[in-house]
Amino acid sequence: xxxxxxxxxxxxxxxxxxxxxxxxxxxxxxxxxxxxxxxxxxxxxxxxxxxxxxxxxxxxxxxxxxxxxxxxxxxxxxxxxxxxxxxxxxxxxxxxxxxxxxxxxxxxxxxxxxxxxxxxxxxxxxxxxxxxxxxxxxxxxxxxxxxxxxxxxxxxxxxxxxxxxxxxxxxxxxxxxxxxxxxxxxxxxxxxxxxxxxxxxxxxxxxxxxxxxxxxxxxxxxxxxxxxxxxxxxxxxxxxxxxxxxxxxxxxxxxxxxxxxxxxxxxxxxxxxxxxxxxxxxxxxxxxxxxxxxxxxxxxxxxxxxxxxxxxxxxxxxxxxxxxxxxxxxxxxxxxxxxxxxxxxxxxxxxxxxxxxxxxxxxxxxxxxxxxxxxxxxxxxxxxxxxxxxxxxxxxxxxxxxxxxxxxxxxxxxxxxxxxxxxxxxxxxxxxxxxxxxxxxxxxxxxxxxxxxxxxxxxxxxxxxxxx
Amino acid sequence: xxxxxxxxxxxxxxxxxxxxxxxxxxxxxxxxxxxxxxxxxxxxxxxxxxxxxxxxxxxxxxxxxxxxxxxxxxxxxxxxxxxxxxxxxxxxxxxxxxxxxxxxxxxxxxxxxxxxxxxxxxxxxxxxxxxxxxxxxxxxxxxxxxxxxxxxxxxxxxxxxxxxxxxxxxxxxxxxxxxxxxxxxxxxxxxxxxxxxxxxxxxxxxxxxxxxxxxxxxxxxxxxxxxxxxxxxxxxxxxxxxxxxxxxxxxxxxxxxxxxxxxxxxxxxxxxxxxxxxxxxxxxxxxxxxxxxxxxxxxxxxxxxxxxxxxxxxxxxxxxxxxxxxxxxxxxxxxxxxxxxxxxxxxxxxxxxxxxxxxxxxxxxxxxxxxxxxxxxxxxxxxxxxxxxxxxxxxxxxxxxxxxxxxxxxxxxxxxxxxxxxxxxxxxxxxxxxxxxxxxxxxxxxxxxxxxxxxxxxxxxxxxxxxx
Amino acid sequence: xxxxxxxxxxxxxxxxxxxxxxxxxxxxxxxxxxxxxxxxxxxxxxxxxxxxxxxxxxxxxxxxxxxxxxxxxxxxxxxxxxxxxxxxxxxxxxxxxxxxxxxxxxxxxxxxxxxxxxxxxxxxxxxxxxxxxxxxxxxxxxxxxxxxxxxxxxxxxxxxxxxxxxxxxxxxxxxxxxxxxxxxxxxxxxxxxxxxxxxxxxxxxxxxxxxxxxxxxxxxxxxxxxxxxxxxxxxxxxxxxxxxxxxxxxxxxxxxxxxxxxxxxxxxxxxxxxxxxxxxxxxxxxxxxxxxxxxxxxxxxxxxxxxxxxxxxxxxxxxxxxxxxxxxxxxxxxxxxxxxxxxxxxxxxxxxxxxxxxxxxxxxxxxxxxxxxxxxxxxxxxxxxxxxxxxxxxxxxxxxxxxxxxxxxxxxxxxxxxxxxxxxxxxxxxxxxxxxxxxxxxxxxxxxxxxxxxxxxxxxxxxxxxxx
Lengths: 468, 468, 468
Fold this sequence. Notes:
The structure is a homotrimer. The first copy, chain A, has two domains: 14-48 and 158-466, Metal-dependent hydrolases (TIM Barrel); 49-150, uronate isomerase, domain 2, chain A, CATH 1.10.2020. Helices cover 50% and strands 8% of the residues of chain A. The first copy, chain A, contains 20 helices and eleven strands. In chain A, the strands form four sheets. Chain A has a four-stranded parallel sheet, with helices on one face. Chains A and C meet through helix 4, helix 6, helix 15, strand 9 and helix 18 of A and helix 16, helix 17, helix 18 and helix 19 of C.
């Protein structure tokens, strides 16, 4: 038996499984559109080999190593760099062995499924990883990575990625994107404008960031008007490097639409470094509306990723810094929070604002009703902890009845784990195919419409939502 | 293949499907009890033909046209009247064609299922509506509506509606109900007492409404005692026109049980037009308890529909007014909110208060535990966005284990779309039959009990909850 | 047909059912570990016969009698003692008949399943309880209870209970546990340290309780240090009577980690009886962190049961007191609430804190992400209203993908209904077996891993979480 079941994630009933399989077959080999994620553009610019199995699968992926940490494995033993530069494990083989020893923790998890998919479909393994074969696994992956066909660009092409969006801060010089564009490689790697560092007064170095923002744009970012113009300039720069979208990671979905003189006064406080937590929150909210207005002007799709309580453990944040698996979702309300922005731009037919949530209770109660009414709103796909078999199924079951399929936006992998991209899209396609098959089998959809929709969900809605 | 699958919404497994079908067959043709909804009593009083297909299916039903609006279709092109009386599309055929062009938006939605059910079972169509056949559809429906058998009373009888409750404001003269009662037609169309306009200090024209309330009842509604008496008088008037229930649409489930002198002082503030938002909210809460106490006196069932954020879009409210598809659910808490009312009347064995929610998270956490304890409380059925195949299934799966079947109240269609009534009850019967079949198949219920319960859910619980 | 279907709670699809049955068979007869519950240790210390059917099944179990109350049956007629000592039904046969008359209320509920399981597997009934056979049922149970094989210790042994934890307050003298330990019976009945009465300033008699706490421990509980030492002393006393865990029933999950001088000042206020509601809440929060620190010292597992709104009905509380079926879950947030405690001890690899919730929305949004990161945290099983077929299924479907199986802690029955213990564990085993079978059938788990996990969930995780 292979590592991955060819019929994985399909329904059990024979007839239903047959239909799900047929629907999946019709979309299985469609090119991958990855309109939002966190891959490193340097990989594709330089096209160097990936260093070793541990640095490919374990240490950069906090959704893998946090599971070991949750069972008492120390980050030091996993080679996760410390803030104080203190000693951590340096031997990738030892890290890999520690990972193999705890592979059972991933039973029943999406990470487990993605790992097995990569092991089989990228590296050709047929046996699951165990303590016993950990060294063989390591050697085989390491040898394979040395081959030209396993360099980033070759993998990108083999994965049939039609377009991959990365995410860069507003101050990024986009050198890797420029290098990719100027190269002879035809792969489409585009950037996304993520201005949190110059929008969030609580961001580390916010005031310095604004100064740098001014230098980069030649605008006077000490004034509200200059600051807004700097965004316009920078958005255009990002569009020149392929960007079709912006992205906003906020603790809540709060928006504001203050009179411009009040917004300017709030900005003055923020830039002075003297604004309160409440004022910082209001400023972030104001900036979502400003960004939405700029999207009406320049056509960029706007993504709002709200509701993560970042760096929850003070101890881990102090010892190891950001992005170490301690980002915890929190309750997130959208109905009142989005109203100021929606009153400003919600009825614009050519604007696209994509909403992402980590609070599944908002799917049916808030997001689907909102997306099923406002022309400017669409639902982003199931996000983060929920881009899993059960998570995507719940997403479809809860949202479709209220906002239909056409107010959704296809799939995002949102990953920094490059090898998992085909695995993640495959899961999404299988779950959608199964959902469509169930609608047909229960008389809620014709078979013809199901085949059409399978392609719409995989391709068409992504292209239109992100203008690809 | 017909437009609607004869086995729609049943489980896929053969044995299970057979049992679900048998259970459904036992209730399929039972008369419809529609104890809560928003049909227009004028239809049945005057018995005029429905004007045309667009005015039957599209323009009055904001849960149809909002889906087109969400994809950028303008309300003007859909013929939705403007507040300013500005020009909107007047040709019902053009509106119908625009609707047909976007019919794919309803794939996988309950609206889609209800529309197809009406098209096939009311108008005899066997092909789905498309752009190509839109004119044929229009002509056929229009011709059919001209026939005597398709006038409102004939349809009411053919739909086998045993009782239909409409909903009227406290100031309504109930002329259409009187006309129906005095007519030679035997159809049972009853009213429901909905006093929001004279209970909610934030309602448009509240103070004027109270004056009118005084005129209608001959009570001095400028005093707290006179005001309460006016409610008693008006409730009796509604009972004379068939009402067995009251209905209360509040933004939250807040209740209060203030000492009567404090309640009187709050009323004095409200009637002076000077109460704050917080005081208005408290007054609404107080009135729920007062209404519950009157229900103990006069036996009327009390319905609380809480948790909708009405008219969310300021722009749409300004241009097109209320009920345009922009009512968005919000989080709603019941545990603390209902305590004052429940401390006052919750243990009354002969009182029935029906709770409806748009926040599904409260089913298992709050509503089922409350209904499974307090004699006065029962759960209303899945409401609004959730009276769908998946919504009703979730409702049963989450509530039954905690409060059983007997603390629920059967089905409500809650619709103003007359032709969808049989479709909606059919969905409910199919989903309940499927749920019962699953309980039997998983050893949680005997087959005999399942057949008994199918009828209990369809008929008995509705009759007892609404005293029909 | 027997009262309980041998294939109950398994999936319907034949192949899937076969696998679920095989998985269940592999764990069906494993000994029961009951690490948290509310049985009375006196039963096993004295080993007297259970008095009669009504006192075995109805009057002590508020999750049975509340269902009758919810349909208007009076507590007096059910023989529930009144606070004022007023007359209530004394004839257990009449109570039993009233119970039998309403047995249909339990259709589709876990109570119904547990009752039938006990009726068949403990008392040998093959026909469901009805009004007609209520007297025969009564007589048979009553006669059976008179047999030596149906005394508490014999039932404990026949149920194959390997370990049963009861729950005692900090002031309990543990006399029954001492008597069990000193007896010649080998059954393992252990206590659990539940200090709410000396931790919660709002608890009835808190100040007196602290005085008694001082007497029992010989510590000066009028000082913060003495008070903390008293807890240490008392925890050791409980450990001497078998305790491996503490338990904390708080209205919310709030924790605090104040500087010790501020904590001492808060304690001084609490002991003076003058602290505000907010200060009482803060003090409870502080004590969770203190208890966690003591658990780091002494190795006791810490259980937090948060989010119940106890004694919701003021009228019932006044007439009949605590634990009468009117405890209602409320919304409960963990992310911010637990942060102070987690910042203090969350990364301790040898500490185990088990979190229980009545708010299922927190499974995926908060608890699984937290347990999937912090070494000290594990998820307790589905609790109270949710330790049911659907509840446990939702628990697995929502938590597993984010925190895996190994951050959970097996099953708790948490009951005071002794005869239901085998029934409850049986439900859990069947639902887990079915869940594992579905993972296998959908290619998310190998069959070998599923068999391993079935045992891990039933036994290993309980033993490790509770150090049994």
